[in-house]
Amino acid sequence: MRNLELDKVYQKLEPGPVVLLTTAECGRPNVMTMSWHMMVEFNPPLIACVVSEADYSFRALSQSGEAVIAIPPADLAETVVGIGNCSGRDVDKFARFGLTAKRANEVEAPLIEQCIVNIECKVLDRGMVKRYNLFILEAVKAWVDPKRAEAPTLHHCGYGRFRIDGEELRLRSAKP
Amino acid sequence: MRNLELDKVYQKLEPGPVVLLTTAECGRPNVMTMSWHMMVEFNPPLIACVVSEADYSFRALSQSGEAVIAIPPADLAETVVGIGNCSGRDVDKFARFGLTAKRANEVEAPLIEQCIVNIECKVLDRGMVKRYNLFILEAVKAWVDPKRAEAPTLHHCGYGRFRIDGEELRLRSAKP
User: Fold this and answer.
1) What pLDDT was estimated at residue A79?
2) Could you tell me which residues come within 8 angstroms of residue A147 by beta carbon, excluding any fewer than 6 positions away?
3) Which residues of chain B neighbour A78 with C-beta distances below 8 Å?
4) Fewer Cβ atoms within 10 A, N terminus or C terminus of chain A?
């Protein structure tokens, strides 16, 4: 994985892929599937996301204030669904799904080697957690796998139904 | 356009399509392109979105407390980019881009006939507007064009580059 400039992070998240969110609690890594996220600011990149209190990751995210947002390629779809259908309360998901945890630079939460992008994040604002389970994260370091940077990603439509990235289209636009 | 049950709204927005946001100010409709949005709650559907103070729509959204989120099909890509590259300050965008404004039920902001989904929204929470330009909207009524409900949508990767929805994938999942 190579460094991904922070001002390009939005180009990976703005298209709305399903992501994996890793956390660590007392050295124990966990991972959940997440689709409720959006960019809030370009640079430094701010990202809003919703992690329900019902998710086991909620505590680790809240207490550590750290996470990694990892973007899985479409060929990881079965794993993405599997991760979403079990809980870190009961299972070591990295072991069960054969994911390789790699040490991050700025946070304790691990990177996922099988993912095409990994974004190290710190919780910046908890002001909307109580009301909406909405966290504002700041991306502090990001990584891309240059060989698979353009791999198709998944977009979740509910109950395990996905649209996979298809054709690319390039139009002239002055807007980021 | 037919009624779209409110508990299915997330299935249209969670995949992360580029959307058009319509507003109305003193009876004058306007529309902007938006990619920074996410679901916050299933039902009643709550949607977070970022509308910059620099956007002309900011004032209409803030003052009226109403908007429509419209999902354009991929074949509207040129229009989507065009809308993003001019301002309602200078142009009647509905006229310039040949969009048909239709009367909504619950809000003054118009529906867009050419879009495959239209979601009527009211601003529910402005608590994060000052700091992040982040609005929490509540969907109060939604519409789908049944003939084009599954049409491919656009995902914006920056500067007019899009990925278009490709293949569909259905896996077994208990999770909405």
Assistant:
1) 98
2) none
3) 171
4) C
Residues 15-54, chain A: which have Cβ within 8 Å of B? 15-17, 33, 35-41, 46, 48-50
Q: Give ipTM to 2 decimals.
A: 0.97
Given CB atoms, is A82 within the 8 Å cutoff of chain B? no
pLDDT for res B20: 98
Cα end-to-end distance, chain A, whole Å = 25
* pLDDT of the residue at B29: 97
pTM of the model: 0.98
Q: Within an 8 Å CB–CB cutoff, is residue B130 touching chain A?
A: no
Residue-by-residue DSSP string for A43-94? TTTEEEEE--TTSTHHHHHHHH-EEEEEE--GGGHHHHHHHHTS-TTT--HH
The DSSP annotation for B74-140 comes to GGGHHHHHHHHTS-TTT--HHHHTT--EE--SS-SSPEETTSSEEEEEEEEEEEEHHHH-EEEEEEE
